[in-house]
Amino acid sequence: MDEKKEDIYILAIESSCDDTSAAVMRGDTVLSNVTASQAVHEQYGGVVPELASRAHELNIVPVVDAALKRAGVKKEELSAIAFTRGPGLMGSLLVGVSFAKGLAASLGIPMVEVNHLQGHILAHFIKEDGVEHKSPEYPFLCLMVSGGNSQIVKVNSYDNMEIIGQTIDDAAGEAMDKCAKVMGLGYPGGPVIDRLAREGNPKSHTFSKPHIPGLDYSFSGLKTSFLYTLRKLVAEDPDYVSKNLNDLAASFEATVVEILMDKLYKATKMLKIKRVALSGGVSANTALRQAFHDYAKRYGWEIFIPKFGFTTDNAAMIGIVGYHKFLDKDFCTMDKPAFSRTTI
To answer: Which residues contact 278 (CB under 8 A, 6 or more apart)?
Structure first.
């Protein structure tokens, strides 16, 4: 006899980069979503893989314990364990994968492997008790933007996704972090650029935009244009950056958003799909969210923007994929290794 939704409890584990996260799902509803971040990387200007994996080892047990306690669920009540198998940093992934295998074996319950990128996209289907929620109908287009990925994905079903455009070099979030570093803003730079840009003039500076055919993206040329522009301005005034931080941030951010939205608009026209979703860490960006609302008003899009808590890496997004795969009895065997690179 099939289990009812309310009887399915899934523990989800996410450890693909520098956040250790665990969530407990009751069906497609999240009961808890606990994340431990790693501040140690800030002084290095980026994630240090060895330090990340060591921190995961310290965090995984207390994070899982906290998730179970907040959900009010005992480990013996769990139906399955969902975990991020990849892509991501291999050392970080191994901590989560090994923990999931050990706990699943000890409890005698199945494991569900989840593609991290698929999790970001299906975050739109996470429900919360007492919160009104609307998920996109299939098919829909999803713009997934993060530090490692910039993709336009045609989502036909939870397990059928087609990448129709992607970056051929840097991702949007990666470009933001690198340009923030040039301005001395530290790591991660995306949130700082977002905050500074709110007080700046997005038309104060002009940077080169790529001319890439089709629906693919490129951000390396923009990054180079930004660097050369800064060098020229600083040569004329050594204090230029500090005097114009807000305007520089606003202009750079506006250029990134324009590049992203131009290709997304082309995709909606080509495929005649007006249901459009936003996913990934950069989906927390204020200007990008506003652009979605502007395009929806102008072109009649039906848009879906995730809650801030579901934009960055978190276990609830792994749990929602795990729930759907659990229903299909799509389980993972113990011999499956982690993988660092893949597509959806």
So the answer is: 142, 143, 145, 288, 289, 292, 303, 304, 305, 306
- Domains of the chain, CATH where assigned: 5-132+311-327 (3.30.420.40), 140-308 (3.30.420.40)
Query: In whole angstroms, what is the distance from residue 231 CA to residue 6 CA?
Result: 59
pLDDT given for residue 260 in this prediction:
97
Average pLDDT value for residue range 156-182: 94
d(CA 138, CA 286) in angstroms, rounded, equals: 26
pLDDT at 1 over 50: no
Given a cut of 80, whether residue 133 has pLDDT beyond it is yes
- Cis upstream peptide for 87 (omega within 30°): yes
Residue with tokens 């204090």: 239
Burial class from Cβ neighbours inside 10 Å (0-12, 13-18, 19+) for residue 33 reads: buried
* Range 277-300 average pLDDT: 96
Strand positions, DSSP E, 188-322: 275-279, 302-304
Distances (CA, A) of 245 to 65, 181, 204, 218: 43, 12, 11, 24
Average pLDDT over residues 321-327: 98
Helix axes of 90-107 and 49-71: crossing angle, nearest 10 degrees: 30
Report the alpha-carbon distance of residue 68 to residue 76 in Å, rounded.
11
Count Cα neighbours of 261 within 13 Å in the Cβ-side half-sphere: 20
Q: What is the mean pLDDT of residues 139-149?
A: 92
